[in-house]
Structures are given as C-alpha cells and as structure tokens.
Amino acid sequence: MSESMDAWARRYAEFFSQLREPDLARLDEFFTADARFKDPFNDVTGLEQIAAVFRHMFRQCPAPRFYVHCWAVQGNTAFFHWRFMDRDEGADGRLHLDVDGISRVLFNDEGKVFSHIDYWDPAEYLYDQIPLLGGLLRFVRRRIGS
Question: How far apart are CA 116 and CA 2, in angstroms?
Fold first, then answer.
C-alpha cells in the first residue's frame, strides 16, 4: 500500500466535493471496474452504471453539490458524513434539495472503491415535498410518534 487509508478517504471526499459532470470520465481512478453503488433509489454494479446514476443526477438537479463534513476510517472501510444540496441559482435561488447522509465506502488494497452505500432518509428529504404523499406521511408520523 503506497498511501494510507486516510489519504484514500481524503482523496475520495475531495472528488465528491468537487464533482462536476465531466469528472464522470474519471470514475475509473476511484472505483474498481465491478464496484457497487447503492442509495435509496439505485443499486448498481460497474463503472457505466455508476456513471449513469450520476448523469441522471446532473440532469435532474441544476446545481448539485456534495459537502463532506468528516469521515472516519477503520480497516479498509471509511464512513463519510455529507450533505447534498441543489440550488437553482438561475431561477429564484431557493433551495430545492438539502439531504444529510452517511456513506459506507470499502476500499481495496490499491485504494479504489469496490462498494459505496449511501444511507439517508428519502421520506424526510423527498417524499415530504410531494403534496398528497407528504401530507399522508406527516399524518402517519403524528399518529405513531410519542
């Protein structure tokens, strides 16, 4: 191992913090060819499918940004605490999406990611914004909450 796990985690965090659509051509610098990427909406394997997930994000979000707050490393695993924001500066400048999450990322011996799993609550950040569904979810939470 030429670099430490912390250095690999830092490099990975910087990549996502600065991610722009042209950077998707460099995914092979960070992921193994058969890497798995999973979030609440996707569970894909391979560089092309991972790139497709992020291309979709860039099509749906006018100004996506990841802010990696911190990470912890244990063995070949890094946990990242991040915030994803999307703000349409060309329109009214209002915040369209603000998601707080955690990622569990597994690195191989060469410092490439072979598994990236995101953990965040789509009900809190997305479903609540859908008029009828959001109202129903708020009602259910009031009924089952203490």
Answer: 22
